[in-house]
Amino acid sequence: MRQLFIILGLISAIFAVILAVLPLSNFAFFPAIAGLLFGILAFLKGRKENKPKHTIQLIFLLTIIALALATYKSITATTEVGNTEQLEQRDQESEENAIEELEDIDFTE
Amino acid sequence: MKHLFLFLALSFSLFSKAQNNAFQAGESLTFTAGYNMSGLMTDFAQVTMQTSEVKTSSSTLLRLKCKATTYSKWDNFFKIRDLYESYVNPNTLKPYLYKRDIDEGGHYKFVKYNFNHRTNTVKSLIRKKSKNFESGFWDRNANIKINSGTKDIVTTIYHIRSLDIKKAKVGAIDTFTVLFDGKETKCKFTYVAKETINTAIGSKECYKLRINLINNDALKGNDNLIWLTADENKVPVYAKFKLAVGNGELKIKSATGLKN
């Protein structure tokens, strides 16, 4: 059982770190909390049996990194549009081409 | 992104036609497109809808334009720069030229429809990038027969805003036809309720509409909804569409140049 919690905790923690790095950082909270819970459960199981705790410490470390990064990004994130220079150019060219094309159309149809 | 526009377009057909009192040239609406999962929202793109006047030597047309741009944090992962536009008669809102110029994550596609309302046909051009051709593009031309009243997606969005929704009763259903990807798509639209919702442009009383596509899988289920302000402008302020996991959302950010 302890092994299962460790594996699930590790997978959740790694997943949380990956999400936290990506622009989807808001969704890192779900696996991070799951990772923490699995880590605590594995820790409690292991305490009775007096087993090594290195992997559990790693789970906690990864989830804390993920949570900290996701929280930082959610506070500081700005929703800015990237470079639209090319799009503006396409927009302008498209209008010029359209005017040329529409010259031949009979609007009384 | 095309589903987003399709959803928007299909969100607007109403029961009685009216003079266009809803919008004018110079209007600009800005939206935030996002993904919502269990209350956690991630914004990924900005969508703008703008109108402007275009003059040819013989007439004046209305240019209806929709643009979608991903936020800078997404650009390195999946960059979207989409341009949808339609040139319409300012009085009847009949489309004459429709263009779709999309660049989504490196995938480029250009679609052009020249409408002929006398023969009820559309001359269509689809262009994709291809290394197999000297020009660098693969072109496909076709003539498509359409029903009278069929519109492109952008015109449909604006056309619905010009309709007299206030005369429709709750529960009323209507169907209409949109030309998209070379196919006519029929859509069922239901006026669900009148609701007041909080938006970035204030608390607004809105018409809540449900959209169902007929013989099309783009929008599934009964959870594809749109809210239009219950005033003369009928501004689309909020839209929600069901995805496999979570919801896609479109929320208004700003509205300028409104007619009323």
Write down the oligomeric state. Answer: heterodimer
Spans of at least 5 consecutive residues with low confidence of chain A? none
Could you tell me the radius of gyration of chain B in angstroms? 18 Å
Can you summarize the main beta sheet of chain B?
15 strands, mixed
Record field, number of beta strands of chain B: 15
Helix content of chain A: over 70%
Shape of chain A: rod-shaped
DSSP E strands of chain A, number: 0
Q: For the terminal residues of chain A, how far apart are their CA atoms? A: 76 Å
Provide the residue-averaged pLDDT of chain B. 86
Largest sheet of chain A: none
For the record, the count of structural domains of chain B works out to 1
Q: What does the overall shape of chain B look like?
A: globular
Instruction: List SSEs of chain A in N-to-C order.
Output: HHHH
Radius of gyration of chain A: 26 Å
Tally of helical segments of chain B:
3
Walkthrough of the structure:
The complex is a heterodimer of chains A (109) and B (260). Chain A has 109 residues and is mainly alpha-helical. Chain A has a domain of 76 residues. Chain A has four helices and no strands. Chain A is rod-shaped. The N and C termini of chain A lie far apart (76 Å). Chain B has 260 residues and is mainly β. Chain B has one domain: YmcC-like fold. A 15-stranded mixed beta sheet of chain B has the order 8-7-6-5-4-3-2-1-15-14-13-12-11-10-9. In chain B, strand 14 and strand 15 form a beta hairpin. The interface between A and B is medium-sized, with 28 and 42 residues.
